[in-house]
Design goal:
single chain, alpha/beta, Rossmann fold, seven-stranded parallel beta sheet, three-stranded mixed beta sheet, NAD(P)-bd_dom_sf, NAD(P)_dehydrat-like, oxidoreductase activity, acting on the CH-OH group of donors, NAD or NADP as acceptor, oxidoreductase
Length: about 350
């Protein structure tokens, strides 16, 4: 599948954390970007991308589109050969998971891809999925091949009641593959990142990633942090993976995009080593029993079942497909965290303790 880079490309949710870096890389490559967002008239929302576009060989054009409105992306998609569908909610503390997570993720994917089916120019869709579509809890790895996540594995443990965010990502990706299989004009490539870290195009991003790293330095975890293992990926590397999935003709299927395995205590230790005693970084892992008892009280979005199934369980994924087929190289976690935390310092996130 060869893509003509003189044709425009469309990005859903273009002002988002991941999408912002995808747009930046597209503009650097000289492409015309059709940015589909809810409020194109809100210059406060678009100012970061506008500034990048003004200093890049590419150009950007905004289109008004809402994820839950059928046909909303038809105009933005006209003439595009590639569609990047990045827009999807990432909130862990929700009151109504069905309404706030699952319906927007699944219906939004369906709405975008139905417009793709009606737009003859589109040849490839790059979908931002997640490792959450592959697993729900760290405990799931015990049933994975060699206790390692691969692109062949699907999340079968999540539900509306348990890990609803992960459930929404799995349902949305399966919806995309089902729709793709019903036609033969365009192909689908999915990007499955682990926890995304690194500075934002918008330094005041609302992603859960910002909340986590802020809590590491603002005293929230001063007494310690759960020994919760996770995979991590720099947002800039993730953006590069999106471009390679779009423009490498042989790219196909799913790609786990994850630099390495880490954990909350590991992240805290890297930050502490880099930024010293100026911030109240956690210095120890909390006993699992304490996390189980008090975690849901401190964070209502965290269930005791999730704590039981994740704390003190390892995490491991195989990223070799991304290295072999996309040529991906991943920057070290130390760099991601240093750049991310420094951006927060520079933008007044913390009062030094």
């Amino acid at each position: 599948m060869n893509i003509d880079k003189t044709k425009p490309v469309m990005v859903t949710g273009a002002t988002g954390y991941v999408a912002g870096w995808v747009v930046k890389r597209l503009l650097e490559e000289g492409l015309v970007v059709h940015a589909a967002i809810r409020q194109p008239e809100n210059k406060e929302k678009t100012k970061y991308l506008d500034e990048i576009a003004a200093n890049s060989p590419g150009s950007i054009k905004y289109f008004k589109a809402d994820l839950l409105t059928p046909g909303a992306y038809a105009e933005a998609m006209q003439g595009c050969q590639v569609v990047f569908h990045t827009a999807s909610p990432f909130f862990l503390d929700v009151k109504d998971a069905q309404k706030e997570l699952i319906e927007p993720a699944k219906m939004g994917t369906r709405n975008v891809l139905e417009d793709v089916n009606k737009t003859e120019s589109v040849k490839r869709v790059v979908l931002t999925s997640s490792c959450a579509a592959i697993y729900g809890d760290n405990r799931d790895l015990y049933n994975a091949p060699q206790q390692t996540l691969t692109e062949e594995v699907w999340n079968t443990s999540s539900s509306v009641e348990h890990q609803p965010y992960s459930y929404s990502k799995m349902l949305a990706e399966k919806e995309a593959w089902d729709i793709c299989k019903e036609q033969d004009r365009w192909d689908l490539v999915t990007v499955n990142p682990s926890l995304v870290l690194g500075p934002g195009i918008n330094p005041f991003g609302t992603s859960e990633s910002f909340a986590l790293i802020k809590q590491m330095g603002d005293g929230t975890f001063k007494m310690g942090t759960p020994n919760w293992a996770i995979g991590v990926i720099d947002v800039r590397d993730l953006a590069e993976a999106h471009l390679r999935c779009a423009f490498i003709p042989e790219a196909k299927g799913r790609y786990i995009i994850s630099a390495q395995s880490s954990s909350f205590p590991h992240i805290a230790s890297i930050l502490r080593e880099k930024f010293g005693k100026a911030y109240p970084f956690p210095k120890k892992s909390l006993p699992k029993a304490m996390v189980w008892l008090f975690g849901p009280i401190v964070n209502p979005g965290l269930s005791r079942k999730a704590i039981s199934y994740n704390v003190n369980h390892p995490w491991k994924a195989d990223n070799s497909k991304s290295k072999k087929e996309l040529g991906m190289e991943y920057r070290p976690l130390q760099e991601s965290l240093a750049d991310f935390f420094q951006q927060m310092i520079d933008n007044g996130y913390f009062n030094k303790k």
